[in-house]
Amino acid sequence: MTQEHTPMPLFDTLAHLDSTLEIQIARIKSQLSDETAAKEVHADYQHTCHFLYAYRGSAETFKAYRRETERLLQWSWFLRKKTLKSLRRNDLEAFLEFCQAPPKDWIGVKHVPRFIERDGLRAANPLWRPFIAAIGKKAHRDGEVPNTKSYTLSQSALQAIFAILSSYFNYLEQEEYTFGNPIAQIRQKSKFLRKHHGKKTIRRLSELQWAYIIETAELMAKENPRLHERTLFIMNALFAMYLRISELAASERWIPQMGHFYKDRDHNWWFKTVGKGNKERDISVSNAMLEALKRYRGSLGMTSLPSPAEATPLISKALGKGPIKGTRHIRKIVQSCFDETMKRLNSDGFVEDSDMLMAATVHWLRHTGISEDVKIRPREHVRDDAGHSSSAITDQYIDIELRERHASAKKKLIKF
What we know:
The protein is mainly alpha-helical. The protein has 15 helices and 7 strands.
């Protein structure tokens, strides 16, 4: 195998994965001098494609699994000079250390498409890199730009590597392609992953921030109803029904429709969605959320409530026809509301709240809705509406113990 390697993308998008398979294998083989290694790499690549294709039901999961398996194969084939069958525990430990400090030419400063169209063919994008150096929203607003020196691998990213590669090697073992799971054999995971004692910190909005956000969305809808009644509905849905952003965007596995709001025999309203793990669930719809739906439909010139099996997309494009596909567009809509809210908070003198809102993401709306509801609803009800796999996850949103613990510590003395 070659001694130097400039990383190039290995796996295309899900839509092009099959059509570019042979082209990709030929390109990879051309970089290998050892014929035996080339055959093994061919097998590695095909098994990985089959593994990734199993996650075609969830676009975001597919992307995450593609990212981690691709990084491993790039490192294993071209730097470690090994194929999957020969990787052992010490190799995976070396890979994890590599991920924490990859070479400069493996790090990009912005997300770019993996492949581009060139003369009617799919070609690897030379600007693509396996790792991305990112900066926070506040730093970006302050004029800072990302550079390769600012690259860091967070604890959550390390946890994702462990989880995804463990699933990957379990699959390869079940297929009798490899034997053993080198990730599972890493005994001193604490060397890489920090253990957190106590509850996980849930990032959420303050009551003041949320009050300003929803009021801002209402003001935006009043000023430009054609565009921002949709914004208002999105903010309401993310908060009141604890939706993940992927549960509002259309994908190959699910297109949210008006008819997914439905009434049961007791005249109670529900919303049907498909969430993480391709799991379908029904979310109870509050009276306030039902009023938000009526307002949104009224702005679209529709009847106040949907009829059974109404197939109209829930979140439609502002221009053109059809639903919004992917999460990026919805993320921009939410961020525009956050931006306007920050202006209002600043002008009203709430500078600290505005600065803190700068770090907020779309997911904070879900966290905030859950956190508010566990104060007044049975946790089992919140758990099922949120799609949590266990009550232990929902318990992380209960602040009572933390408040009592801090209250008992607040008056501790240092000088007696």
